[in-house]
Structures are given as C-alpha cells and as structure tokens.
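Appendix B. Extra example for self-study. Work through it before the problem class; the solution is given directly after the inputs so you can check yourself.
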Amino acid sequence: MGGDHGCEVVVDGVRLALDGISGISEIHLVGDRPQIEAALAKRHVNDPRVKILHTTEVLTMEDSPLEGVRKKKDCSMVRAIELVRDGKADAIISPGNTGGLVAGSTFRLRRIEGVERPAIVTLMPSRTTTFIFLDAGANHECKPLYLAQFAVMGSVYSREVLGCRKPRVGVLSNGTEEGKGTELTRESAKLCRQLNLNFIGYVEGHDLFDDRVDVVVTDGFVGNVVLKSIESMGKAILKNLKAGLTATPTRKFGAWIARGAFTDLKQRMDPDVYGGAPLLGLNGIVIKAHGSSRERAIMNAIRVATETIQHHLNDVITCEIAEANQRLANVKDNGPVPAAA
Amino acid sequence: MGGDHGCEVVVDGVRLALDGISGISEIHLVGDRPQIEAALAKRHVNDPRVKILHTTEVLTMEDSPLEGVRKKKDCSMVRAIELVRDGKADAIISPGNTGGLVAGSTFRLRRIEGVERPAIVTLMPSRTTTFIFLDAGANHECKPLYLAQFAVMGSVYSREVLGCRKPRVGVLSNGTEEGKGTELTRESAKLCRQLNLNFIGYVEGHDLFDDRVDVVVTDGFVGNVVLKSIESMGKAILKNLKAGLTATPTRKFGAWIARGAFTDLKQRMDPDVYGGAPLLGLNGIVIKAHGSSRERAIMNAIRVATETIQHHLNDVITCEIAEANQRLANVKDNGPVPAAA
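Solution. Structure tokens for the complete assembly:
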C-alpha cells in the first residue's frame, strides 16, 4: 500500500513475477482488501498463488518511522513483516517508508545473532558489471564494528547472490592514502584487515563506477547522501541531454536515428532494473523497493527476494559473522592474526 | 609546476587570461625558470606582465602535504604563497597537491581573524544556474562552528562573486526532517539558524542540481566523497553514452546530426568551465585549479581569482564572520536571538 503509485503497480509487478520467475509458491498482498481485489480484477490477475491479507492501516511517508510502526499495529507493512516472523512467508518486499521498514523489521524479526546493525544494500552499475554499496541509509551513526560487519555481509551477498567469486571490498574514504579518512573509516579499515575478506583498503568516489571495487562500505549517513546526490546528478544529466536533443528539429531527427543509444543508456541507469535493496542482517529476507517503483521494479524486487532465499543467504551470513566476531575477539585477546590464518 | 600536464598548459592558460580578462597587472610564473622560459618561447608569449620567479623544488602528488610544504622550502607552491603573504601578489592559483596548498597557505597566510578553518569551495551547475558546495575537502573532521562559518563564507561568495541576491543556504543531510542527520549536522543547523543567513535548513542529495539551494554546506570528508562520486558517475554516463552512440553506423550517423546537443552537454558538465575552487577564510586569495586542468581551466581559475579580488571578498568575509561570531557569543550568553534582529 505504501508506494507512490498505489497498489495497481504492485499487482502488475506481481503478475510479471508469477509469469517470469520460477519457484514462487505464494505471494501475499498485504493491505486494504477492496483496493487489492479491485486492482487484481482490473489487471485480470487470477492466480491461485496470490493471497490477500486484509489490514486497516497504512504507514505513510509522513509517519515517524519509529512511532508509526509502534502505533499502527494493523498497518500493511507491520502485518507483512509478521508473516515473515511467523514463518508464513520467506521474504517481505515493501516500497513504503524506509525508516519504518528498518525499524519495524528490526523490532519484529530481530537481528541475526552477532550482527550489530542491519544495513541496506544498493546495487549499482559500474562500467561493465555491478557493484554493491552499503549502508545506504539504515544507520546514521555507526561504529567501526558495524562497518566491518557490513563488509562481511556485503561480501557474502556479492559472492552468493551476484556470483562475484572474490569480491573486492573497500571502505569509502576521501583518498586512498593511509592517513586519509575519519576515525571511523580508519578504525573500520583496521578491523576489516583482520577478517577473511578480499579487503582492498580505502576506495574513493573516483573508484565507484569504474570496476575497481565490488563492495563499497560506508556509514548510512554518507551512503544516503552519496546515493541521492548521484541520483540527482544522473537525472540532471538526462534532463540536460533531452533538452539539448529536442532544441532544434535537426537534433530531434538525429536523436531519433540514434534512439537505440538513449534507450540503452536509460536502461543502464534505471534503478528499476535492480528493483530492490536488501536489508541485510535480520532473521528474514527484507527487500526495500524504491518508493517510486513501477511494475518492473516490483518484479525485480521479487526476483531479488527469491534469489536471496534460494542462496540461503542468511545461513551464510550467520556463519561468516560468527567467524568474523571470533577473529576480532582473538585479535583483542592475542593481537593481530594473519588474514589467511 | 604541479599540474598533471606540465607548465605549457599553464602558459597557454595565462596567455588566454592576459588576452581576455581585464585588470591584470602582473602574472608571476613560479617554478623552474628554464622550463618556464622554454614554454613561453614555444607558445610565443612575450607579454611584459609575465614575470618568472625561479624555484628549485616542486611539491609532487606523492609528497605528504604537511611535511612537503615544511621541508621543501624552495618549492614553487610555497614560493607562490609567499608572494601573496609578502604583498607582491593578490592571489595564488595552483593546480598542484591540494593538501599541500591548504597546509602551506594556512601556515603562511594565516586564517582571517575569527575564522576557525578555511574551506574549499566548488562551483557546480544546477538545472538552470550555479550552486556552490563547501567544504570540498580541506577539513576531514569538523565541528559545528566550522560548518556555521562555512555557511557564512559560502553565502558571502555566492552573493558577492556570483551575484546571487539572497543565497539559500542548506546543510547537507540524509533527509530534510528535523530528526535526521548526525550530531554534527544537527548542531551546525542550530548555529546557522542564529545567523543572518537565508538558511533553509537541511538539504539532501536529491536537492542538488535542482535549483533548490545556492550554498550547500558539509564537512570536507563528505564533501570530498560526494564530489568525487558525482564526477565518477558523470564520466561513466558520458562513456556509456559514447559507447552507445558509436555502437552501429546508424547511431553514429544520428549522433553526428545531433552533435550540437553533445557539445552542449559536455560543456555544461565540464569542470574546466569553473576552473578554480577558492580556498576561503585565509588572508589572501587562494585558488585550487583541478590537477588535470587544461588551458581553459587555468584561464578560468585566473578569472575566478580576479573576480574574487575585485569584489574585496576577504573584507566582506572578515566583517560577516565577526558579526556571526558576535551573534553566536550573544546566544551563548543570553539565549537565542531572532534571526532578523
């Protein structure tokens, strides 16, 4: 119920997912039954795998996340999270209030044992492949251990779900030299060096989009600011390009001839291709779909959820976080161990 | 001497500036005399306003900024800063080591009275105009008072040099709601509210490039990361666009017909148009030119320097920083004063 485009778009995405993605046994649509039924009828969706769970409330973008999920006990987001908590669903996908989703799922699903904080993972196109970026905004203020654990969880995600064999993990900083960065980045990098990661040290803004790193680790404040700035910049470029290409009839004609190139570019930059940003570190799969998601984004968010489930991601995260914590505890007791030990 | 493209490019930029910018009485070229003379001869520059100051050392990108400017006493950057300190020049322009320029000019020129830290200002194109962004990387770790002073200095620059009548000043955060941000952004915003600014509160990444803010204030760590990420993203988009437009003969043909649009876009995104990033808050005008500056960027950096001098920027900054500090001291003693008092 919480996306910008209402539930018809969600229903369209669900239809695409049921048609195109194998291995889905049930999709629960959680929200106002009459609205959902109307959308299903309008879109001619009549698949027995679609179930409706009626709820009377919606968490809006105006609601305070913490208070919202506490007070609106019958809102669609909370009820959907509870389906996962109660074992009736394997994953929740929501295009609603991000803060609400983080708070609600952290309270109700609890963190994986040993995980300090969950993190939002964003997938982004680099020159020839895809890199991941976390935390994209779940935690405004972080400690070094959080970032080290983000590095572990991000590395697992890149390897298990995206198939990157030996993900290069870097901490985002303002330069690659040792002396650069803040206390947080320096301490985080120190911890990462103790872990069983392909840790490449600091990466800077210039390294993004350039195939130099597979997992970029940062705190949720910087992550959020960087992601939104990048999005804003991308939109501004496309707007400028469009204005330039439609400024004269000649240019319009040339652009029409070369139109394939613009479709390619738009597709490559389109966040809907990635569809969903997983919230890692909780006992359950939680996927944040963009608030402005269209049907293709919803479908892709469902794809991300099924892939994450099929790769037993949380089992792997549980093991590797336990191992990482053990290593860090050993370092505390006995001094650094060689990374390959 | 310190740029990526050697001193011929600098000489080309100087020639363009002497031809195109009025009011320049002297330009000192500081560095290795034989190299500079060769470049001047090669470019047929024979203007009596060009002076050479010979130095025996160069601060390289590999030098540690602090140690470099301390040990290499006869490096071109240090000597150029000393020309300003000694009143023999009004501004220094350098495409060299940024950290060295910040450290060297802070030590030798000293901060304007009352200014806690100097800040690097970057100019960027928004949808229809130009906004400024500071600190772009001079200070990795900041206190709220630094950011409040950046807001004052940025506002002065936007008003006096760019001609923005009532610059809208915002603190960069991860959302516009009150509760968002870190302790630094929250405290900085509180201070800014006490000042005689057109302060619009928090701005987020989405607001950049969208004509919603004229002066974006952040700490040098976030500033550096955001700027480099944006640059990296811009380059990736242009590369992808070019690849798409040259993928088939048909597209190439279309792109050739519409070529004006791509020239426009490139020009709009070209950092060389802005040329130089002023380092504000010091007793002297210091302009950092991009390390990869070509002649047009050098010329534009010289233009930025002359405009800054002609607007007596530092006199205005001195007054307004004193007033801001007074206001903040009053608040401490007597509680908040209304912003318009």
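Self-check: The domain at 6-334 of chain A is CATH 3.40.718.10 (Isopropylmalate Dehydrogenase). If your reasoning did not lead you there, revisit section 3.
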